[in-house]
Amino acid sequence: MEIVKTATDWAKDEVFSSKFFILFGIMFIVATIGFWQLGRTEVAKAYIYPTLVAGLLLLMVGFGIFFTNHARVTSFANDYETNRKAFVKSEITRTEKSMNEYRTIVFKVIPAIIAVAALLIIFVQTPLWRAVGITTIAMMVCILFVDSNANSRIEDYHKQLIMAENQGLD
Q: Residue 81 — pLDDT band, cuts 50, 70, 90?
């Protein structure tokens, strides 16, 4: 049952980290309201839609991760008791897939998006596109902050799953 505790702890940690996406999303929405209500200049008004979109995206990601992993917390014990080997094998497969996605998306695509957004800020002079570039960079930094920690957790969880499989499941 040690692996079930490990799996449950991992899922609870993911639920906790999803709250940071939600917090960042709320912060972007609050910034949107601030720009909408207090923005007098063209530059301030240009931030209204980019920060709104970024906030909504972060909220969707946060709530998606929250509900997905919250459901996993309760299902791990049942899945493990039903078929221990199948549970560990399916978790190993899922963690390998997630780690590959992190390597591609979080550590290659997001830095590329940040670079493109930085170039947008440098080469495009309109306030809206500069606001889009700056907001995109801010949102991607939030995602990198949370996902780099999540990547570490899933790698540790994967190692523990491999150990459990090699030891004959507890």
A: confident
Sorted by sequence, the CB contacts under 8 Å of residue 104 that are 6+ apart come out as none
CB 44 within 8 A of CB 35: yes
Give the range of the structural domain holding residue 70, as residue numbers without chain letter.
2-166
Is a pLDDT exceeding 60 seen at residue 169? Answer: no
Would you place residue 1 in the very low, low, confident or very high pLDDT band (cuts 50, 70, 90)? low
pTM of the model: 0.89
Amino acid code (one letter) for 15:
V
Quick one: tokens of 23?
């917090």
Domain total of the chain: 1
Cβ contact 13:72 at 8 Å = no
Instruction: Judge contact between 72 and 94, C-beta under 8 A.
Output: no
Task: For residue 3, give the amino acid letter.
Answer: I
Q: How far apart are CA 49 and CA 22, in angstroms?
A: 18
DSSP secondary structure string for all residues of 9-72: HHHHHHHHHHHHHHHHHHHHHHHHHHHHHH--SHHHHHTHHHHHHHHHHHHHHHHHHHHHHHHH
How many other CB atoms are found less than 10 A from the CB of residue 138? 19
71 versus 42: the higher-pLDDT residue is 42
Q: What is the DSSP letter of 106?
A: I
